[in-house]
Amino acid sequence: MHRAILCIPPNLLPEKSWRILMGDLENHFGDDASLDKKDEKIILDFLVQYSAEKSTKKASFKILKSIGNKDIIAITQTTYWKKKHEDIPKSVFLNKEVKSKANCKACHSDVEKGLIENDKIKNINSFM
Questions:
Q1: Who contacts 77 (Cβ-Cβ below 8 Å, separation ≥6)?
Q2: Per-residue pLDDT reduced to its tens digit, 22-32
Q3: 45 closest CA partner among 10, 80, 72
Q4: From what superkingdom does this record's organism come (predicted)?
């Protein structure tokens, strides 16, 4: 049995984004994340079931609004994400512990539980 690790909770992208992302796993942000069809379907079904449209979390509503009709598969490309992170120095995302904007876990310690609340964010001064 394989174990998939999600970088972001499914409620932070809409169904359309998940379908686009899962439809091109051999070109997954520069990596080949191909899966067998059975595992791919299980993961896609999970992502769709808990996508932003089906969430009651405030962040999900804001992300949906910021995406609109655009085909966005990276949360870091949403207007909402950019606005929430605009005051963070670029050097933080280049820090060896953070590595990139896509590494939510570096600052949001409970992201795998779907929690991105402000009171759970690490102090970014440690990355500067």
A1: none
A2: 999 988 888 88
A3: 10
A4: Bacteria
